Amino acid sequence: MSPHANSSQAQPAETCLRAQPTPADIRRWRQYLADERAEAAVYRHLAQNREGEEREILLALAEAEGRHEAHWLKLLGEQAQKSRPASLRSQFLGFLARHFGSVFVLALAQRAEGRSPYAMDPNATDAMAADEQIHEEVVRGLATRGRNRLAGTFRAAVFGANDGLVSNLSLVMGMAASGVASSVVLLSGVAGLLAGAMSMAAGEFVSVRSQRELLAATKPTQITLAVAPKLDIEHNELLLVYLARGMTHEAAEHRVAERMGLLGCDCDPSLSLRPELPEPEDQHEAVGTAWGAALSSFCFFASGAVIPILPFLFGLTGVAALVIAGVLVGLALLVTGGIVGLLSGTSPLTRGLRQLAIGLAAAAVTYVLGLAFGTVVG
Question: Do residues 345 and 107 lie in contact, with contact meaning Cβ atoms separated by under 8 Å?
Fold first, then answer.
């Protein structure tokens, strides 16, 4: 039997197999189709607010999702007419893309691309599975740009809010457990809020200002361009500059020859490291400004620290006030931990639960110490 005969027999079998997918296959393909359409829409929405290279990247991602959509349309055939809604995850991404910043959307999209089921699905092509893995890295790169833009101030804000929640809840718990009056607990909470917020702001200001000064001190200057023509060619210390910056001896000599005007052209571009040129990315951007970090730290510490004293501000006392304070702080810790998880591309629930466990554990320890102190003093 000729190979063409084998081919003609195998093709109807394959067509028959595709013509009779199981109901589970149909449901799964429809879900994939809906999700691909939703994800393509997300990337297009994000592209509308971007320019240049980022816009082109996002549109290319949307185009790739369109190719995946075409694959499921082909498999479904007439069955594609009965559509399914996109998954809750995809709908949530679409909502964020339409109403909020791209940093959160890209962080979630990065996690979603990394959890694509195509690698394990026999009906998805190898190219589609590879696409999803590459998409994760593409989205990670785009998300990193946004993370760098808010890293310094955001770090101060998150740490400030968490410190305010945990420290003031611990203070309130410890004071209440010692047996003092509710008015004293409230006064202590307000004092802790003000003192902690000022301390956090001052600490962040000094920290960020010092970090920026260190970065500025390590950046190469343009002095080599200005003084190179005046150097003694026989005792050329310019070579030491490039050696100190980490160049090899060969590269340093080539650079010196360029600076001294001994080379009419850049004969070996591979040796021209050009350390005097500005860095392609601003290292200071990820650090943030000192005043921005201090202000955000003050505000977010205060916003976190006010939560444990809210029940006392509204006149509650005793165990009821402590329970409500603990519940409110617990919810706030879940939210802040979840936000950190979103932006870092990890599980929001895991990060939220970790924040909750740490915060409540600290408050519980302080409460026990307050009981012991109150018993000893009493």
Answer: yes
SS3 248: coil
Of 242, 235, 229, 244, give the one whose Cα is nearest residue 272.
Answer: 242
The span from the CA of 367 to the CA of 360, in Å, is 10
- HEC-encoded secondary structure of 72-122: HHHHHHHHHHCCCCCCHHHHHHHHHHHHCCHHHHHHHHHHHHHCCHHHHCC
Give this prediction's pTM: 0.59
- Separation CA 58–CA 82 (nearest Å): 29
pLDDT digits (tens, 9 = 90+) for 111-152: 777 778 898 999 999 989 888 888 888 888 887 766 666 555
| Residue 178 to residues 187, 305, 309, 324, 365, Cα–Cα distance (Å) | 15, 20, 16, 18, 13
**CA dist., res. 64 & res. 113, Å (int):** 12
Reference 228, options 247, 256, 197; nearest CA is 256
d(CA 353, CA 361): 12
Summarize pLDDT for 286-301 with one digit per residue, the tens: 445 778 778 878 888 9
Give 246-264 pLDDT, tens digit per residue: 778 888 777 777 766 666 5
pLDDT for the residue numbered 49: 81
157: closest CA among 120, 197, 121? 197
Instruction: Look up residue 72 and give its two tokens.
Output: 């499921």
